[in-house]
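Course assignment 3, question 2. Fill in each field.
Student: A.L.
Task: Predict the tertiary structure for the chain below.
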Amino acid sequence: MKHILLTIVLISTFAFSQTTAGGYKVENLGSNSKNSDFGTTFYGENKIIFSSSRQEGSSLLKAKWKENKQPFLDLYIGTINKDGTVTDVERFSTNVNTKFHESSVSFTPDQKTVYFTRNNFLDKKLGKDDDGITNLAIYKASVTSDNSWVDIKSMPFNNENYSCGHPSISNDGKKLYFTSDMPGTYGETDIFVVDILDETYGIPRNLGRKINTLGKEVFPFIDQENVLYFSSDGRENGMGGLDVYAAKIYEKSVSNALHLGAPVNSESDDFGYILKTDIHEGYFSSNRKNGVGDDDIYHFTAYPPLKIECNQNLTGIVKDKETGKIITNAVVVLFDDKDKELDSKTTDDKGIFNFNIDCNASFKIVGTKENYKKDIKSFSSENNPDTKVRLDLNLEPIPEVIVTTQKKVVVNINPIYFDFDKYFIRKDAKIELDKVIAIMQKYPNLIIEGGSHTDVRGEDTYNLDLSSRRANSTVNYIIKYGIDASRITAKGFGETQLLNHCSNGVVCNEESHQQNRRTEFVILNPDVLGYETITE
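Answer field:
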């Protein structure tokens, strides 16, 4: 009996036809009647409207629906208490309720317009299809200051040959979701959406196979965060009858449907789910066992609330900018729009990297590899989980510089040596200094320090002075050939930074001592060349 009533009300007056779900505390409302109560809608801050075939007052004389021997459905209103119970239930406005079915209400955000479901009955005229069947239709009305519904109009997409019902307005008031068996339906009934264009409407669109199945999809409800809740009996993971599902609606796509599980769902029909997102409370309807009557209304609290995450896959290949060859073992770091590091990956043997990223967000990726200039790319992801982002990085080789074991980035030239106790530029040194000049011409923002060193023979102060003269000698040579003096400095270190064991008191041959008589050109701003940090 319960299933028959539900099916008929959904369709017509003729009998035919990731992510986590969270946890729930569910309670049957004490205000349910022995007949059918279902299809709740929030009205203002503390009111709720629902459909009921309860018998009270004038309804005792109202005609019975032959399919379940209960009165036709009317709209009722009640007060929501702090604990979620509903009291002060009374019949809604008589200018809305008719002798036929009324159910499933949805208000625009400003509460000035309401959409509701009724048998195809307007201006005392009952619409019928070619077989004499009266289907369901969605109507629109204006809400007056005294909460009367006036200027009732039929939606332009209604048709006597099929049903439309269960309206739900999006939080921005721009879209209307509803149930129908209109042409283009995949199963018995599908969920559609239509754009609200001021006083007109777009063409209804089927939400597609991620939502709709060969069975029935009914009772859509779109919440404040654009999550669509609906019921379906056409999915393999259902518990029996109609079950409640949730899916996130995006700009160009929709997520996979998430089954809410028990105790919202049961072996019976569970439907009409509505939610106040900010407080994680709401209502749904069910004809499960141990209810008060037929279809009953249940209050629930979600703890924790349902969460549907939108993720995309970012993939790319790191290549050598000059040769186009792939670069393996390159480090790619993912940052958010506030430069917070989110993840880091190393390219595989095909130069590929992958990240999972959030939808509708801004990011930056930085690719680095020793002896390459880093590549930086910023981008924004779409609000669409089906989008696959491809972003390649191209690293420019820097053959002239290396990272040394002394945690310095130095110009990669052959060592510049000096004769013992001398500071003049030898012929072999001029060849290497010309390379430094060429590098500084290639990278006009490069700033270099020419640091000279001595061996340990001689007094410390003398060696410090000698190294300074050697440093000035090399720097002056470079400046002489056109390099701006502001880009290169000279510094003498004496015998303070030996490269080998030839310290004071240690006997070494001339070759070993000469290794310490050298000049190095240290790059002071290595970031220009793509070095963020220098490591051993």
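Instructor remarks: The chain has three domains: 2-308, 311-397, 401-529. Confidence is low (pLDDT under 50) at residues 1-18.
Grade: pending
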